[in-house]
Each structure stands twice: as structure tokens, then as C-alpha cells.
Specification:
four-stranded antiparallel β-sheet, mainly beta, seven-stranded mixed β-sheet, globular
């Protein structure tokens, strides 16, 4: 059974930082691409960042220079360091490994 434990979300003031973590179990995801998607209030779901097993990285244009994705193969984990957050970053963030997706974790940025 595949399980995800997402953590690190919460409420932060504009300009602040959060680090999201997602630890997966049940499957060895080391050969899978992984990353984070988000859905803000009234907005469509969007890919935030992604990395594959060759460590190629994609980061959405609007978060470049502020968000960093990383993974720990040994821990079956993926992380998202988010700096200089603004209100547009508010939303539900989901980690994914291949076609598997976590349950989501809330990030709220206040002015």
C-alpha cells in the first residue's frame, strides 16, 4: 500500500519561508519522477516543480529563484524549500511520485 506523509505547511507572513516534505512508503520510487503541484483558491492546478531520476529539474517560472526542489532517494522523499513567499503562493500543495499523489498540505501566506 502506497502512503505519503506530507509536512511543513502552515501559515506564514509574506516574505517568509516554509519547507515542505513528503515521505513515501510502499513502493521504491527511486526510478520515478517526483515533484509538487498546487492549487490556489479559484485557480487551476499547476505544476510547481519536478525532478526525475536523472536529476533533471523543472521549476515553474513564477517561483524560479524562490523555490527549490530536492529529493532523498534513500528516504523515498521529496522536498520543496519555499522562500520569499507571497499571497499568490497560497494553496493546497500535493507531492507526487509518478502517477501517485499525496493528500495535499495547506500553505497560507498572509500579507
Amino acid at each position: 500500500q502506497v502512503k505519503f506523509v506530507e509536512s511543513g505547511g502552515g501559515l506564514v507572513q509574506s516574505g517568509g519561508s516554509l519547507r515542505l516534505s513528503c515521505v513515501a512508503s510502499g513502493v521504491d520510487f527511486s526510478s520515478y519522477f517526483t515533484g509538487w503541484i498546487r492549487q490556489g483558491p479559484g485557480r487551476e492546478r499547476e505544476l510547481v516543480a519536478r525532478t526525475d531520476s536523472d536529476n533533471d529539474i523543472y521549476v515553474e517560472e513564477g517561483v524560479k529563484g524562490r523555490f527549490t526542489i530536492s529529493r532523498d532517494y534513500a528516504k523515498n522523499a521529496v522536498f520543496l524549500q519555499m522562500n520569499n513567499l507571497n499571497e499568490e503562493d497560497t494553496g493546497l500543495y500535493y507531492c507526487f511520485f509518478g502517477n501517485y499523489r499525496g493528500q495535499g498540505i495547506q500553505v497560507t501566506v498572509s500579507s
